[in-house]
Write a structure and sequence with these properties.
By secondary structure, the chain is mainly alpha-helical. It has two domains: 12-31 and 127-410, no CATH class; 40-126, no CATH class. The protein has helices at residues 12-36, 46-64, 97-103, 111-114, 122-161, 164-171, 179-198, 205-208, 210-226, 233-244, 249-270, 275-284, 298-311, 315-328, 335-353, 357-381, 387-410; strands at 86-87, 90-91. The radius of gyration is 22 Å and the shape is globular.
């Protein structure tokens, strides 16, 4: 016990990071409060309709065993069938995981509260996604700190904790809960990178990595279960394993295969181990669905750029600086910067190629990788002879960004 509570695990950086995550949670909670106390009935907006579908389908599966979205009732949840992407009644974009995660906290409530007209019970359906937002932020800080030190970690976490899009996704405010898929994709990529680095240890690596195998399998299940098209992280994980451990590719392949089996079993569990429902759900699932027409339309580039800037307005200044520095300065072109930048670029491209629900998920999933790329390059610049000027400029901009974000959030009406 005394070895666990050490300064390395619970020092000043950890407490400062915790304070930033508390600020993030407070902002997301305020947004949920504004949403649930809005004068506009949630049944009349698309996001509110989707949430009602998830709650109804998840509640039905938890109590009656009828698998959510495999297929939906007709009509789904007594709502317009256009509010969800379906294929012959099957949810083509998501597994039952989203519905189960949304409805599961409601099991703790008494029946009379669920039958009341009050919207207070809707808080419980948002708790899992608020937790995912906090956990993704903690994962981001841990990875960024390992890759680029305390300075880079705090830059990345500060940009994350005041990101309008991340806060909105965590609060499920007028949007689908893509935060779950973003957390799963982030965990899958960096768990695979961590596993690859352990393959150089002089020990039996496969048995020694059983914890990371399970963690990688859980990450894959969360990513794919939340959004079927996020299956692209599966070959990406194998690619990083092969690239980082070229002399141990056999062990890397065995570990990846074991993790995929763990993820497949967890995905099967989301269907409550019903083979027919699982096989039919996989048959109707849209694992690709990309179209390359978006790359020929100039308006798509403009819209994607606006979405990235909406996720973090500070990137309007920091991202061009980071890209220019990365291209001009060889010192910044190492794996810790290149890998997250490449993954972010891939996800942005996939977001452009998916014009429907999946596109928003890929764009949101790209944001944490973009923040690590930017913070890594900025941390390198802060180690140059001009570090005092660079540090002052970076933290001045981050401070202005935080102030702008808080002021914008405070102006959201509750009616």
């Amino acid at each position: 016990m005394t070895r666990f509570f050490t300064r390395e695990r619970f020092g000043r950086p950890q407490f400062l990071a915790g304070a930033l995550l508390v600020a993030f949670l407070a902002q997301a909670t305020w947004l949920v409060y504004c949403d649930l106390h809005s004068a506009q009935p949630r049944a009349y907006d698309v996001a509110g309709g989707d949430e009602q579908v998830r709650i109804a389908a998840g509640w039905r599966q938890l109590h009656q065993g009828a698998i959510a979205g495999a297929p939906f009732p007709d009509p789904p949840g007594a709502l317009d069938a256009d509010s969800v992407e379906t294929d012959a009644g099957f949810d083509a974009e998501h597994s039952p995981l989203l519905s189960l995660v949304t409805a599961a906290p409601l099991l703790a409530l008494p029946q009379r509260m669920l039958q009341s007209d009050s919207s207070s019970w809707h808080w419980f359906s948002r708790i899992p996604f608020l937790a995912c937002g906090v956990l993704l932020g903690a994962s981001l800080w841990y990875v960024a700190r390992r890759l680029c030190g305390n300075t880079g970690g705090f830059v990345a976490l500060s940009l994350y904790c005041f990101s309008p899009s991340i806060i909105q996704a965590s609060a499920v405010w007028r949007t689908d809960p893509e935060i779950l898929a973003a957390w799963g994709a982030f965990g899958a990529i960096f768990t695979a990178i961590a596993v690859a680095h352990t393959l150089y240890a002089p020990r039996e690596v496969i048995l020694w990595n059983w914890r990371r195998i399970i963690l990688l399998g859980i990450s894959l299940a969360i990513a794919v279960g939340s959004q079927f098209s996020m299956v692209v992280v599966v070959p990406l994980a194998l690619g990083f394993l092969f690239y980082l451990a070229p002399i141990r590719r056999k062990a890397a392949f065995i570990i990846w295969t074991a993790a995929c089996l763990v993820g497949l079993m967890l995905l099967f569990a989301a269907y409550f181990f019903h083979p027919h429902a699982f096989l039919e759900g996989m048959r109707h699932a849209s694992f690709w669905g990309a179209t390359w027409r978006g790359f020929t339309v100039p308006g798509v580039y403009r819209q994607v750029g606006l979405q990235i800037l909406r996720a973090c307005p500070a990137l309007a200044v920091l991202l061009p600086i980071a890209i220019a520095t990365f291209l001009v300065w060889p010192r910044s072109r190492y794996f810790g910067n290149t890998a997250p930048g490449a993954v972010a670029l891939l996800f942005i491209g996939l977001g452009m190629a998916h014009p429907h629900v999946a596109g928003a998920g890929f764009l949101l999933a790209s944001v944490p990788f973009l923040l690590i790329f930017v913070s890594g390059v900025l941390a390198d610049l802060m180690e140059t002879p001009a570090r005092l000027l660079v540090t002052a400029c970076v933290w001045g901009l981050v401070g202005a960004y935080i102030l702008w974000s808080v002021l914008a959030l405070s102006q959201i009406p509750r009616a």
